[in-house]
Prior knowledge:
Protein name (chain B): High-affinity branched-chain amino acid transport ATP-binding protein LivG
Largest interface: A-B, 30 and 46 residues
Oligomer: heterodimer
Strand order of the largest sheet of chain B: 6-7-8-3-9-10
Number of strands of chain B: 10
Strand content of chain A: under 5%
Number of helices of chain A: 18
CATH class of the largest domain in chain A: Mainly Alpha
Order of helices and strands of chain A: HEEHHHHHHHHHEEHHHHHHHH
Radius of gyration of chain A: 25 Å
Shape of chain A: globular
GO molecular function, one term (chain B): ATP binding
Largest sheet of chain B: 6 strands, mixed
Structural class of chain A: mainly alpha
Keywords (chain B): Amino-acid transport, ATP-binding, Nucleotide-binding, Transport
CATH architecture of the largest domain in chain A: Orthogonal Bundle
Domain ABC transporter (chain B): 2-250
Distance between the termini of chain B: 39 Å
Organism (chain B): Marinobacter zhanjiangensis
Order of helices and strands of chain B: EEEHEEHEHHHHEHEHEEHH
Number of helices of chain B: 10
Radius of gyration of chain B: 19 Å
Strand order of the largest sheet of chain A: 1-2
Distance between the termini of chain A: 58 Å
Amino acid sequence: MVAHNFRHAFFCAVITLIIAWPILGFKLVAEGTQITVNGASAFTWIAVAVAAFIVFLFQLFRDRIMGGLGGLAELNPMADREPMPQEKRVRLENIGLGVLIAIALFWPFFVSRGSVDLATLVLIYIMLALGLNVVVGLAGLLDLGYVAFYAVGAYTFALLSNYWGISFWMALPIGGLMAALFGLVLGFPVLRLRGDYLAIVTLGFGEIIRILLNNWTSVTGGPNGIGGIPDPTLFGMEFGRRVKEEGNTSFHETFGIAYAGEHKVIFLYLIALVLAIITAFAIRRLMRMPVGRSWEALREDEIAARSLGLSRTGVKLSAFTIGAFFAGFAGTVFASKQGFISPESFVFLESAIILAIVVLGGMGSQMGVILAAIAVTILPELAREFAEYRMLIFGAAMVLMMVWRPQGLLPMRRRQIKLKAET
Amino acid sequence: MLEVQNLSMRFGGLLAVDQVSLDVQEHEIVSIIGPNGAGKTTVFNCMSGFYRPTGGKILFEGREIQNKPDYKISRLGLVRTFQHVRLFGRMTVVENLMVAQHRHLNTNLLSGLVATPDYRAREQKALDRAAYWLERVGLMQQSNLEAGNLAYGQQRRLEIARCMVTEPRLLMLDEPAAGLNPAETRELDQLIISLKEDYNVSVLLIEHDMSLVMGISDRINVISQGRPLAQGTPDEIRNNDDVIKAYLGEA
C-alpha cells in the first residue's frame, strides 16, 4: 500500500515539475524585433520545487488527509437534522421567496449602477440555468450546446431591430419562439441519442450556430457583431437623453425629473427580474404537470416510460423546446442590456458555465440552481482583486464543492402528495 | 383477444424464436414456460413492440400490432412488466403511478399552466386511482417514498400497480415471482387471480415458479429453444413426456 502510494506520489510530483518547468521557468522577453528566452529567477525555481514537494507529500498521505477532511461534514450541526415536514418547509420557502422578491424589487434604487448591472447579468444567468435545468436536470439530456439557443434569442432581437426596427417588447416573444424552434430542430436528429453521444452532438450544434454567426458576414456582421440594439421602452417612453424614434417620448421629460443614466439600468434590471420570476414559476408548474413528470420518467428509465405509453419523441422534443424557449428569453434581454452583440459572447465556455450552475445547484432543484447562478456570477467579480488568479480560485472552489457536496447546493426534494384515502 | 401466429425473431444468425403461436382469450390466465434461454422474453419483447419480429403476425383485438411502436401498443391496452424491475427510482411511489396515467390526463400545456377545472379534475381522478391501487397492493404507507428505496417485493407490487392504473386489457408479467420469498409469492398468486376475477384483465405470464404457474394458469404454453413444444391445461402439461424431457433431460 505504502509502496504503491509512494510510486503514485512520485509520479504526480514529476508531472508537476514537467508542467511547471516550461510554464513558469522561462520568460519570453521582446527585445526590439527579437524575442529572447530568459530563465526565471532563483525564487521561481525554488517555488516550483516546493510545489512539487507539496504535491508529493499530499499524494503520499492522501488517504489520511482526505479522511480528515471528510470529518469536516460532521462539524456541521445541521447535518443530521430530520428533514422538515413539507407544510412547514413550503411555508418557510414562500415567506423567504416573498421577502427575497420584495428586496430584489427595491434594492436597485439604493445601490451603485455597477451592482445593478451585475445583478441584471445574474438574473439572465438564472433564466438560462432554469431553462437548462429542464433539459439536463429533469429530462436527463446532457446538452453542451445550450448557448446556441441563447445566441438565437439575442441575434433574433438584434437582426429584427436592425432590419425592421422591431422593438424589444415585440422581439421578446419572437426571440423565445425562434429559440424554441431551433430547440425543436435540434431535437429531431438527437432523438435516439443518449448520454455521451447526445453531449457531442449538442456541442457540435452550439459551435455550428456560433460559426454561422461568425461567418455570415452579410447578414450578421460576422465577428464585428451588431450594434445599436435599442433599449426597451416603457409604454413608448425611452430612457435615453434624447428620443431616438419618432412618436416616442422620453422618460425623464414625461415625469419632469432630471435625466439620469441609472433609470435605464434599473428598468432593465426590473424587466430581467420579472422575466426571471415568470421563468421560475412557469417551470415550477411544468415540473408538477404531466409533461414534467414524463421528463423525469424518461430520465429514470426510458424503456419503462415507453412501455407505459409515453412517446419518446414527444417527451424529448418538449424538453428541448421548452428549455430553448427560456434561453431565447434570456438572449433577448442580454442583447438589449449590452446594446451590442457578437459571436464572442456565445462561446462554449458559456455553455459550460451554465451547466456548471445546474450541477452545482443540484440537478432538478430550482432554489439550488438560483443560488448557484448567483454564486457563480458574483464570485469571479468579488475575486477581481486577485487578478489573474481569480479563475484559478473559481476552479478550486468548484472542485471543492463537488468533493464535499456532490449532490449540489440544495438537492431536489420530492414533493409529498397527500392522498385522500390516507385519512 | 390476443393471437400470435407463427412468430419468428432472428438476430443475425441466431433464430431466437421460431414459429411460435399462442393465443389469450378474455378472462384467462395463460403462462409461457420453458428452460432458460428458450426465447420467452423475446416473445414478450416482440409483443410489446420493443423488437420488430422478422416473421409472423401478432393480432390484438383483431388489429395487427407487430409493426407498431411500443408506446402505441401499450396505449391499446397491452401493458407489460419487466424481468428486472424497472421503476422510476428517484420519483416517489405516487409519481410513478401518475406517470403511468399520462394518457388519462389533460396534457395540454396551457390548461396545465393556468390549472383549468378540467385539468384539476383529471389530476384528482388520477390521484384517486393511484390511491386505490396503492391500497390494493398494500403500499399506502410508502406512497411518498422514492420508489428506488422500497424493498424488492414492494417494488414488484408497485410495478404491477403501475400497469394496472393504465387500465389495461391484457397484462404481460415477465417473471413476477423472481426474487420473492414464499409468502410474497402466495400474495402475488392471490393478486394475479384477483386481477382476472375482479378487474377482468387477461394475464399472460412468464414464470419459473412451477407451483405458481400450475396453480393459477388456465392454459400453459411450453417453449424450448425458440420452438413451441406443447400447449394445454396444467394437467396436460404436467403429464406431457416432451415437456418432462426438456426440463429434466433425457433419461
